[in-house]
Amino acid sequence: MSQQWARLPERGTPLMLRLIRWIALHIGRPVGRALLYPITLYFLLTAPAARRGSQRFLRRALGREPGWWGVFRHIHCFAATILDRVYFLTGRLQPFDIEIFGDSLIVEQAASGQGCVLLGSHLGSFEALRAIGVTLRHFPIKILMNTGHNQDITGFLNALNPALAQAIIPIGGPDTLLRVQESVAQGSMVGVLGDRVIADERTVRVRFFDRETVFPAGPLLLAALVGCPVILFFGLYRGGHRYEIHFERLAERIALDRPRRQEQLAVWVQRYADRLEHYARLAPYNWFNFYDYWEEEA
C-alpha cells in the first residue's frame, strides 16, 4: 500500500471550509447538496491523481471500466459525506435515516465495562460513528488519529464539536500506547482506521481485491498489546439521507507468540482486509482512498 496519501496537499482552504459550514448550518442541506455538483466537477477536472486513483479502484471493484460518470459519482459520494460531517459533528442527526447492524454487539461491549478497539477504514463516513457515540451517549469513544495531515480540515472539524476534539489521541506520540491502555481500562472504545500506512509503520503483505499489497500492522498489534477485543465498523453512505453502520467482532482477543508474531499478525490483518473488501464491494463509491493504492505506477 502506498504512502502517497500522506504527500497529497490539502484541497480545502480555511475560507472554503468556513463557507461550507455557513451554508450547511444557515442555508441548509438541500442547497448544500445542490452545490456539490459544481464542486465535484471542479475536483474531477483539477485533481488528476485522485481521478486516476478512483479509476483504478472502480475498475477492480466493478469489474469494468468506470468511465467519467463513474468517477464523478465516486467523488460526489465523498463530497456528500464531507457536507454531512457538519451535521454529524454538531449533533444535528434529525435529517438522517441511520440503520445500525450489529448494534447488540456494541451495546453489550459497552455494558461489560471493558473497552475495545474499534477498527474502521476510509470506507464511508467515520464521523457517523463518532458523532453517534458522543451525541447519543451510547458508548464512550476515543479516536486514535494522525493529526499531522490535513491540519486545516482537522482543525475545522474539531471546532464543530470540542467534545469530539478532546476525545482524540494523536498517533505516534510518546504516550500513545499508555493513553490507549488507560482508555480501554476505563471502558472506552478506541476507534482507529486500519487501511493506510503511515511513515515507519510496521506492515504485512495481504491479498486485497485479488492483488497483493501491504496493510498496516499497527492497529492490530496495538490491540494485541492492550489485550482487548477488536470490533470492526463500517459507516456506509447509501445516498440521499441514508447511512448504514455495521459492527462485526473480529477478535475477542489477539494473542501473538513472539516466534510467530509476524505470521500471526498477517493472518489477522488478512481477515480485516477480507471484510474491508466485502463492504467495499457492497458500496464501491464509498471508497475514499483516492490515490495509487496498489502502487501500480511503481
Descriptive notes:
By secondary structure, the chain is of the alpha/beta class. The chain has one domain (4-286). It has twelve helices and nine strands. The protein has a seven-stranded mixed beta sheet, with helices on both faces. It has a two-stranded antiparallel sheet with strand order 6-7. The longest helix has 23 residues, at 67-89. It is globular and about 55 Å long. 39% of the residues are buried. The model is unreliable at 4-12 (pLDDT under 50).
Topology:
Layout (H helix, E strand, L loop, with lengths): L3 H4 L6 H14 L1 H18 L1 H15 L4 H23 L7 E5 L1 H10 L3 E5 L6 H9 L5 E5 L5 H10 L1 H5 L1 E3 L5 H10 L3 E5 L9 E6 L2 E6 L1 H9 L3 E8 L4 E10 L9 H22 L16
Parallel strand pairs: 1-9, 2-5, 2-8, 3-4, 3-5
Antiparallel strand pairs: 6-7, 8-9
Helix pairs in contact: 2-3, 2-5, 3-5, 4-5
Question: What distinguishing features does this structure have?
Answer:
single chain; 298 residues; two-stranded antiparallel ribbon; globular
Task: Describe the structure concisely for a colleague.
The protein is α/β, with parallel strands linked by helices. The chain is 50% helix and 18% strand. The chain has one domain.
In terms of quaternary structure, the protein is single chain
Beta-strand residue percentage: 15-25%
Q: Count of helices?
A: 12
Could you give the count of β-strands? 9
Main sheet attributes: strand count, strand direction, barrel closure: 7 strands, mixed
Distance between the termini: 11 Å
Strand order of the largest sheet: 1-9-8-2-5-3-4
Assign the structural class, choosing from mainly alpha, mainly beta, alpha/beta, alpha+beta, or little secondary structure: alpha/beta
Low-confidence stretches: 4-12
Average per-residue pLDDT, rounded, comes to 87
- The coarse overall form would be globular
What is the string of helix and strand elements? HHHHHEHEHEHHEHEEEHEEH
Rg of Cα set: 19 Å
